[in-house]
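Task: complex structure prediction.
Instruction: return structure tokens for all chains below.
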Amino acid sequence: MNPREEKVSIITEESTANDEDAEVGRREKSSKVQRQQRKKQPPRADSEEMVTGKAQPGQEEPEMHLLSMPARRGPRSLPPIPSMSRTGFAEFSMRERLREKLQAARSKAESALLQEIPTPRPRRLRSPSEKELETEFGPEPCKESQATSHRNDSQSYSRVKFHDAVQKIKSKPQAPPGFPSAEEAYNFFTFSFDPEPEEPTVKARAKNRDGTHQEEEGEEESPAGGMNKMVLNVIARAGTPQKDEEELLGSQDAKDFLLGLDPAPDEFVVVRPAEYEGTHTWLEKEKELLFFPSRRAVPTWKKLPENVQPRFLEDEGLYTGARPEVARAQQNVVENRLLRQEPERKWFGDDGRILALPSPIKPFSSRPRPLAQEPSAQAGLETHYKKAVKYVHRTQHVVGSADPPGSFQLDIDISGLIFTHHPCFSREHVLAAKLAQLYDQYLARHQRSKAKFLTDKLQALRNAVQTGLYPEKPHQSLDATQKTIKEYKSEIRETRKLRDAEQEKDRTLLKTIVKVWKEMKSLREFQRFTNTPLKLVLRKEKVDQKADEEAYEAEIQAEISELMEEHTEEYEQRLGEYRASYQQWKAWKKAQKAKKKKKKQAEEHPEGEAEEELYPGEEPVKPIPPELLDHAVLEQQARERAAHSRRRPGEPVLLPELSLTGSVTPDDQCPRAEVLRREDVKRRSVYLKVLFNSKEVSRTVSRQLGADFCVHFGQIFNLQIFNWPESLTLQVYETVGHSSTTLLAEVFLPIPETTTVTRRAPVEEVEFSSSQHVTLDHEGVGSGVPFSFEADGSNQLILMTSGRVSHSVAWATGDNGTPLIPPPSQQSLGFRSALKRADAISSIGTSGLTDMKKLAKWAAESKLDPNDPNNAPLMQLISIATSGESYVPDFFRLEQLQQEFNFVTSEELNRSKRFRLLCLRSQEVPEFRNYKQIPAYDREILEKVFQDYEKRLRDKSVIETKDHIDTHRAIVAKYLQQVRESVVNRFLIAKHHFLLSDLVVEEEVPNMSSEGSGILGLSLFKLAEQKRPLRPRRKGRKKVTAQNLSDGDIKLLVNICRAYDIPVRKPPASKSQQPARSSRTFSDRHAASPGAHSPPHSPDTPLSQVSVRPFVEVSFQRTICHTTTAEGPNPSWNEELEFPFRAPNGDYSTASLQSVKDDVFINIFDEVLHDILEDDRERGSGIHTRIERHWLGCVKIPFSTIYSQARIDGTFKINTPPVLLGYSKERNVLLERGLDSVRSLSEGSYLTLFITIEPQLVPGESVREKFDSQEDEKLLQATEKFQAECALKFPTRQCLTTVTDISGKTVFVTRYLKPLNPPEELLNVYPNNPQATAELVARYVSLIPFLPDTVSFAGICDLWSTSDQFLDLLAGDEEEHAVLLCDYFLFLGKKAWLVMGNAIPEGPTAYVLTWEQNHYLIWNPCSGHFYAQFDTFCPLKSVSCLIGPDNIWFNIQQYDSPLRINFDVTKPKLWKSFFSRSLPYPGLSSVQPEELIYQRTDKAAAAELQDRIEKMLKEKIMDWRPRHLTRWNRHCTSTLRHFLPLLERSQGEDVEDEHRAELQKQLGDYRFSGFPLHMPYSEVKPLIEAVYSTGVHNTDVPNVEFALAVYIHPYPKNVLSVWIYVASLIRNR
Amino acid sequence: MAAANPSVFLLMVNGQVESAQFPEYDDLYCKYCFVYGQDWAPTAGLEEGISQITSKSQDMRRALVWNFPIDVTFKSTNPYGWPQIVLSVYGPDVFGNDVVRGYGAVHVPFSPGRHKRTIPMFVPESTSTLQKFTSWFMGRRPEYTDPKVVAQGEGREVTRVRSQGFVTLLFNVVTKDMRKLGYDTGPADTQGIAGPSLPQGIPR
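Output:
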């Protein structure tokens, strides 16, 4: 095995190509070999019994594999050679080769010489063996084994041989590693690595061939036959071949020489048996060479030096840190290996474990995660310029943000240092120090003079007792006196004891002082020099002998008497006790006697036995009577005590006085040792370091140590600090000579109270001591070493270096005398430092930090190592907290750090206008929602910014009556406002709720289902479409989302196309010749009747050639534009007017736009020219005319309608006043258009308009929020299904099944329809005319003001209020009107439906459809007008669904225009009904009330309102005419006022002519232009707007007069109909 | 407008949309616009811009370089709503339709100085595979209704996006009077006034 092993090392060391190649080959081979071996093993184990129990193939195989892989290659082909002396095998072989060559040459020569040599054969036969020996000088064992394997006959023999060989190998000395042994070298050079596998069981022939092959490769050639035998012989002969090799060689040389052997290299072939080695041997060998560390745990004793117990540092409280995680088995393996390799155990620690550093792995990564994108190299190299900034120290804990840092100052005054012991103290110094100490003590005691105090007290007490015993005040109760006296006495006793003790102490102290002084003196005498200037003088104070004695005696006597008293007392007590017990005893005795007697008697009278039980106990001891103490004894005691503790009478009072007046022996008179000591002292100097929060902040100068061991510094350090100090420390350093500086001691100074300020702080002394051990070689006694004063060294003393630092620490005061002290809030330092522990926070939360118990518990639970330096602050905190020193709050603070981050108080924050503004804006308060550029400073925010808002807040509760006049309406408005706000708040979240479609534009997925199959195809077809078709189709305008618009971006375009049936001027009366008196003189009822009258044109009026000259004026947001003037009653303008649009507050959000309440007023005027020439003579040279304009009518379109409709296109009925003085409908004059038949159906004028917004705005969408509902779930599903189906068929037709009620709940729509009673008085008006009643009811409904939902609930949704809510609110949009009207009609017994459809200008709206006898009527609920189904001017343009009280029908007819559809809902082909046979009507209860209750409106209130409105309007008109005088014609006004109720009664019909006649009669002199306006009343503002829009005030005729009358007709439930008659009058001259 | 007591601070941004890396696409152009809060107002320069179409470079980098300048100045009273630049990149798809290739936004750097920002770009994903196919086929990929959506946080939870590429921007930022109004964004603004330097954010 050895050679193999060596081979490995060779191979690894040499790295020639050769070698590598070989290795490759070998590897292959070896693997093969292994495989075979593995195969063969089991049978061999059986047969040869070589595998012992140790060989466990399963276990060992893998490791063997690893370790012996190279070693096993070509096991058999190695020619094993015994190693020999290291004489360089290479040389050897070379030599051999040379030798061979030489031999060859020689033999040739010999053969040439000898010519004929007979029998060459034997030579040849022999030579191989010789050769073999020569070359294969290696160990024969392998050969041996080869032989063994195929030598059947000599099996046993070979085995013996084999064993021998093994032994030989074993005994072979091993070559040092790294050096090739001779045989290795040989192998290396000679051996060719044969890939031939080893087959132990192959036949011998095969083996032979192998052998041959091998030998061919080798240098040697040997004859095949008989070789083996020869070899064996040689071996047998050779014995130990290693030793004899050289000899052998030598002999062989000789033999060769002699024999002249000449083997040609190729001639001979050595056939050898295959080498084989048993597994057992293998394992044996491997076991020697290989070491498999066990996985078992190593016992601790193996890892430690002998007789050493393992130490566990952690248990001893030292911090060890966490060891890194290593698998136990692996650790064991390593330990085993280490023990084997390096037995000196240096790898093991005291605890018997492998040494390990604490695990360096942190639980959290401290480096930020690398960004996803690697920075490019260039970016890394790029240089950034940064301006150098001067660093200003700014700690996080700067105290007081306002103060400049460092404003706090701590003054530390270090005055000096005195050593009470120092190594350099001589013995005398020690005594001196002692003496000084004692003297100090004495002084202190003397100053306190406690003894005297106690004596005085005693005296006082005695006096008190005296007076108490003989009281002068007899009134005191005896009892109390007794008590006090008793107390006094006990106190006297106590005080006396104390006094005695004090006196004794004083006396002993004095004695000690004297004793020390004596010792010192003796020492001085002994050493014959003096070191210290100490000198004690005992002053004797003479005392008056006699008085003293008397006092003494008196004292003693007093004491004795007291003692006597005490004793007597005690005696009495004892005596009492004695007596009691004596009595007992006596009784017992008596009993005993009696017993005895009885016994005696009992002998006679046995019945007395019962009494024997009386004292069954033991015999009581006879009590000893207490003896009364003798007075003499007491006196003796007292005197003894006094003598001991007190000055004897007459003895002078000794007063020691210590002075430093003594002279110190100069150096030259001192012995050598002392001089050395003094020199040493001189070399020493001391300084102090001042440490603040354990950081050195400054140090004192170094001062030499004086001979008296005092150092005076007298330095004051002013520490400018930021923080509350945590610690203040002085470190005492001593320097000896120039060399070493040693830290003697640390002195901790207390941090001064906040009340201590400079100049008031007392100088304090703090003691320190050091534990250093110093031994000196001179007189100095050293420190920490024993020394003695006695010559014999007994009574040893050990003194440590100690001393006192006198200092004072105080807070400095500022210039103005304020102490510069950090605020005390800073003192809670524990928390802050503890916050360093992030772990604690993460485990128990930050709040836990304030809870000390929790924190401590956590620390205990988490087994926090108290010695880990990381945990130090936490442990400190916990220890402080648990010891109860600091205040632990028992409340819980949610954000305990909040206070630190509050940079301003909350009051201040609330006061900040800017902050408030920001808050309000963030809350989207309407006033501030779009506030731009909030100023940077509070001072720049004007208070008036908040005024509106604050006013609104205030008004919430206060009902504002100014705008509303009518209180009821004010309440309603308020209520509406509140509902609106609540709804707005309700939907605020929904507004911020986004859908995918809000954010992402995505093409609809083409419908692949059967129905929509064409769509995909269509879109595919679209792809093929040309990009620019020849006939382009109209494309929708691009819609603009409203958010990024600003003022001026949006324009309103109004296109006025044409008008029909404009009223024409009535021709001036024929009898009137004056043109100015035009229209009023003629009063003919026929004029108004259609077709009856043809007004004669008056050619003599030069300026009124045409019947009418109308123009259109459009006003929007107070911007006014007008068209040119056209002529005739059917004018055509085709003009586009452009208006800029401004959103309120510049907020162009959808919600804001939806709530724009502005209306577009389209007014039609007649332009009248008046000739104002006074003089007809000038007519030829000039034209002086005045243009007057007469209002003819108006169309009002709310902006919200335009916004939601995007465009409005259609013909509108012009809202003309019922009475238009001076004008009439001209029906027969201009028939050229042939529209007469159509027009005859309707009355009134019409205007064709087109209105749109540029750019087109995206109308707001209703909230998609799904509201909760009380409807049945099934019903809701059905509605969804129904709607989906309808939408699929007719996506443009609106299908309504569920609506949202005012509380935000989904309600099925039919629940709104239910017969409801109209006001009683309306029904009573025309009791017999249902049609008239219906009209009246419709009028009543139309008088309820209209308020679109989009306005009231900005951008939110359409809310349906029930009819009672509607009537209470007196405001609603089409739905509410329609519902109410429909309900009324149902009440009236009509068949009525709600029609959902599109109308102009409203857009999607609700109308009411009724079935009269044979035709359908369509009612506009908002205007009260009704239309026949086939009326072309019906504003309803399309019908999508009908809603009845019990069903919904969806229009599935091809057309949806009411003109073209059939309203017969019973036909399922035309109307798809919601409830059908499959889903029957479940009988839904109505949400409407059972009955409507109407209050009669207060007529007086209405009258009052009427007056107020009139007054207000008059004021307004005067306001609108600032440059002119406004005169009111009272006469006319009263006429008009009378006329208005008439109009109301007749609903504006057929009163014109009467009225005109009357006016004519009354106002004959005036040219009159005016008209009544009629509208429902909601609030004042619309009235004002309406009056303004007529432009009546716009006359600048100088002598114009005005008339204005208001009439309010009250209907039930506060529904008011308002009539305003406004007129201008011009007096004719 | 006394210099001593400014009521607004100014932020001047110039720089350029330097280049982009869209490994799969070519012939792209980009649009940028700024999104800022209510207290901000642009005082000078262009708030929006649309670049030329650029093709990939022929070298290894395959970079799409625009070098499209940005130059705008804002004034503000409040750092809330600090301007963000919103970029959207468009380019033709297989059929030649102009489709969006990426949206991205980044705040204008707070601190004065030169800053380079690389913005990852993303596009909204189709809601379904079928949608994806049809949108690819029709050349109508999902787009944001408004590119400014990417600068705001509200409502983003309803979208799904896919990352597409990167755009590199270079900013040179100059501020005025921020320090005077009490906003400390960096050392370069503290001319003569010493203060601790704040971290400049994570370096690229």
